[in-house]
What we know:
This protein is an alpha/beta fold and 371 residues long. It contains 13 helices and eleven strands.
Amino acid sequence: MTAKQPARLALPGQVVLVLQGGGALGAYQLGVYEALHQAGIQVDWVIGTSIGAINAALIAGNAPERRFERLEEFWHRVTDRTRLDAAAWPGFDKTFAKLMIIGGGIEGFFQPNPASWFGPLARLGVDRASYYKIAPLRDTLTALVDFELLNAGHPRLTVGAVNARTGAMRYFDSRDQRLNVEHIMSSGALPPAFPAVRIDGEPYWDGGIYSNTPVEVVLDDKPRNSSVIFSVQVWNPAGPEPESIWQIAERQKDIQYASRTESHIARQQQIHRLRHVIRELAKRLPEAERDSIDVQQLAAWGCETTMRLIKLAAPRLDGDDQLKDIDFTPSGIAARRRAGYAAAMRAIEAKPWEAPMDPIEGLSVYSADEE
C-alpha cells in the first residue's frame, strides 16, 4: 500500500537523512522513512553507505509521492520467502532461511559466483574475486531508480565508498558530479562477499569498511548550512556482555560497523562550539580590526549555523545473532521496519528541532531511545 503524501512540514534548516550500512538491518530505515513520509518531512539531502546508499538512491531517484512506494518495493523484492515448516524446532526455520541465503543468494540482489569455487587463492582480479555476483542488484536499481531525477539534485545524494587500491574514502556527491548505478553499487560492495566496482578505472568497495556512519559529511560540508539531521543507525555499539564465541562475533560486528559514532559526534560538538566562539570573539573586536583582511580570514573559521542531530538507533531484537545482517526473512524485515517506524514517530512527536539551543553551541543531539 502506498502511503499518501501530506503537506510538507517546515523544519529549521535543511533536512538531512544519514543512513548507515548493514544489509538486512536496513529495513529499519524503511520504517524510519515511512514515518517521515507520513509526517510530511521531505529530505533535502540524503547520505548513505552500503544498504544505506541503496535506500538513499531509491529516495533521491524518485518523485516525492513515489519514494516510499519504491523503497517498499525494493524491500519486497529482496525479502527471502524460503520457509521451512519446523514448528518442532523453534527458530530453526529462520536459521534454515539464513543458510539458504548463504548458499543461494537473494533474488534481485546477489547470486553465488561460480568463480569463487576455484578457492580463496585463485587470482580472479579484484572485480571478480568474491563469493557472490551483484548483477541482480544492478537490474533492480535500474528498474526502481530514475537516474535522471536522481541527478537533478532534489534531494542531493551522497554515497560513500573506499578505494580498494589506495584505501582512501571517497564520497560521490550528486552536487558535484553525475552519479550512475555503479556509484550506488560500489558503496554496497562489501568484500569478500561482493566484488569491487570500478569507477573511472579505480576499484571501490563498501564504504562501511572505512566509515559506516557518514554523519561527518554534513557536519563538515562547505558551505555550512543549518540542518536538522536524522542519523539512522542500524548497528548498536551497546549490548549485553557476550558469553560465547558466536555472541562475541556479533558484538564485534556491532562495534566495528557502528563506526565510533558517539566519539565522532562528541568531537563535532567541540568543533561547532569553537566555530561559534570564534564568531562571538570576532564581534567583540573594534570595527577597524574586523575590516582587516587578516582578521576576516581568521573570522571565516567561525559560523552561525545550528546543527540538530536526531539519533535513531535500531534496537536489538529477539533472536539476533552475528547473521542478523543477512536476515532477509519476512519476519525479520517486518520487525525491523516496525522498530524504525516507532523510533521515528517518537522523535517526530517530541519535535526536538523546536527545543531552545544555547547560542554558543552549534550542535545539539537528541536520541529517540531516551524517550
